[in-house]
């Protein structure tokens, strides 16, 4: 089924990027240049077996699972709590690598604070924790107007990351993902994705934040030299790095390995890159040996099938 293939391509693409990045998270770019990652490895930073994915994929799968039953911020927020408290949608029944902003938001949710008020709102709350999990929202592109889709993307970001900068990063990412789902190539999707959100962000309260996105909206993020691409846990760095990796690659494996070998927040940069690369190149072009090693592979495939059935056959 074509639509299931599209959902699986994005979810598996994200998850595999995550898993390849996990063993070398926090290593430097100099280390990665000296000893580049070329395959699915294990152990390393978190001492986990090969194919183990992190919170990036866990929270992505939590969101996707919730979307199978329609759109509910309360349900999404509750699934995030279950992930943290019960190891729900973890690779091997263990939670690790929890971002501080996400942790604080989940603590707020547990205390009964509503989802839209739980996330961090300060400028220092702009880690990449909402961007890394937002991809499933792109699959709503056929059942919502574009403006409504981006509004919901902002709401889902706000559960953990409520600052406008994080919301905008998620909106840009989803806009580009939608263009890829519509069949555009990466360069065209990047340009059209920016065009589609330009009016939303430059003619509203979000406009004050837009100077931070000048490099993304230059239409030439891919032209920047490697030395100017940062791969920290800052949301803007992750967005820029993922677009740079996607636009400077010609296949899925090249894109995610380029992301991992930037060093730094390797799992998230590769997950965010891998979601887009997966959609464009398709799950059939992800190395089969990587897919075979991934934890809970069948569960991910089943989730993709349910998500496709939910978002492509009904209006939510």
Automatic annotation (TrEMBL):
Pfam families per UniProt: ADP_ribosyl_GH (PF03747)
InterPro entries the UniProt entry points to: ADP-ribosylglycohydrolase, Ribosyl_crysJ1, Ribosyl_crysJ1_sf
UniProtKB keywords: Hydrolase
Keyword rRNA-binding among record annotations: no
Keyword Hydrolase: yes
Family per similarity comment: Belongs to the ADP-ribosylglycohydrolase family.
PANTHER family named among the record's database cross-references: ADP-RIBOSYLGLYCOHYDROLASE (PTHR16222), ADP-RIBOSYLHYDROLASE ARH3 (PTHR16222:SF24)
Record protein name field: ADP-ribosylglycohydrolase family protein
Provenance organism: Plectonema radiosum NIES-515
